[in-house]
Sequence to fold (307 residues):
Amino acid sequence: MSITVVGSVAFDAIQTPFGSVEKAIGGAATYFSVAASFFTPVSVVGVVGDDFGAEEMKIFAGRTIDTSGIERVPGAKTFFWRGEYGYDLNVAQTKDTQLNVFADFKPKLGAVHRDPNVLFLANIDPDLQYEVLQQAGRPKLVALDTMNYWIDSKKASLEKVMRSIDLMLINEAEVRQFSGEANLIKGARAILDIGIDTLVVKRGEYGVLMFHDDRIFAAPAYPLESVFDPTGAGDTFAGGFLGYLASRKHLTEVEMRRAIVFGSVVASYNVEAFSLDRLRAISRDDIESRYREFRALTHFEDFELEA
Ligand code: AMP
Fold:
């Protein structure tokens, strides 16, 4: 069972009400692969500059993560993102995006990256996502993430790739931005109508909604007293969610609902510290113990409804 991710490996500068960092390891593919590796082997396809050296690459070490698909461009700089959060930690304000090595990136999938069980097209240029899809063979499940930056600048390309995937992850605000619908359910339906089987809407501290056929599954976020840095919450959610799914034989709805809870658990750990600091420290046991707490949190006894 395997999973391939293509996306950004990055340096981030982050400011939250609780502190700031100027050059932390980030990137959607980085967060995703570390999160997914708790459940299944992962192969990463991405690009870095020579400023992302052996020390930074240690983030992938000691885990079942194949990094042979990370290209290093000599003399060039790694993707850089600067984001800020106010007290509403659900909203990231992008202050700077420097594509650097991503500007000329032509992803090349080797044999190890083709025909994975699950392919995750993390948040990057939708034209690159499409190119990867053409090379990927026949994954059982193709999932895609995006963000406001690409909805603004490359909506037609994004729609093209959306027509060829199975599952999409998107933020609540991006559902509204993409669909032009104020109501989230109507907006989600409009996106599903493009030809997507499953839509997972991330709602920050309010949890997740999964739309599949005519059914909706709702999960809360794990209630945390201290959220330090929400960067990577979406990607670690995707990593836990798709990593768990890739480790299962059948992608039934029961498994998909469990996967939503595993994704929520991994994301809840990630936001407790800056960058990937918290993910570096946790184990599969920590994930399972919070999974059990999650079950207790959402459990209630049923009773006979009166006719
Ligand atoms: P999220 O999980 O949504 O908080 O994603 C955070 C990560 O996305 C950061 O570590 C950034 O490096 C990365 N990122 C931000 N903007 C972009 C972009 N336009 N393309 C690719 N990756 C991005």
